[in-house]
Amino acid sequence: MDGIWAVVPEVDWGHLDYLVVDMPPGTGDVQLSVSQNIPISGAVIVSTPQDIALMDAHKGAEMFRKVHVPVLGLVQNMSVFQCPKCKHKTHIFGADGARRLARTLDLDVLGDIPLHLNIRETSDTGQPIVFSQPESDEAKAYLRIAAEVVKRLPPPLK
């Protein structure tokens, strides 16, 4: 945690077991600066299953490997849309793109997040689905992924 103090000294983080930093896709200055200035235990690559997004995800994974940040796995976001009325499932952004990329990079897929209206609505109200609807399938998808990430990280410092 000392590295974080050096980057953002005016923030009192308190005691943290984990600090998750959500970065924009790609391999730009933000990603390089963070990976070079903060000790990072691991990176999770999140991508939709479409080819253009997977190209950025591939570059991101390779960049983290080059700067010696372990890539913990991939998350396939907006993996499937299920019609709330008829329950038909549609792969709007394609199917299994993250799985194909994971095989190419010799990584695991940590899980899938569906494209679901409840995720967007609860996020927009400031009450993420894991808090507002913890028993929903959508919340359980996030919780499964979080558990997979924690399994792959070194234990937190006490």
TrEMBL record:
Pfam families: ParA. One of its GO terms (biological process) is iron-sulfur cluster assembly. Keywords: ATP-binding, Nucleotide-binding. This is Iron-sulfur protein NUBPL isoform X3. The keyword Coiled coil does not apply. GO terms for molecular function: 4 iron, 4 sulfur cluster binding; ATP binding. InterPro entries: Mrp-like_CS, NUBPL-like, P-loop_NTPase, YlxH/NBP35. One of its GO terms (cellular component) is mitochondrion. It comes from the Eukaryota. Gene3D superfamilies: P-loop containing nucleotide triphosphate hydrolases. SUPFAM superfamilies: P-loop containing nucleoside triphosphate hydrolases (SSF52540). The keyword Metal-binding does not apply. It comes from Acinonyx jubatus.
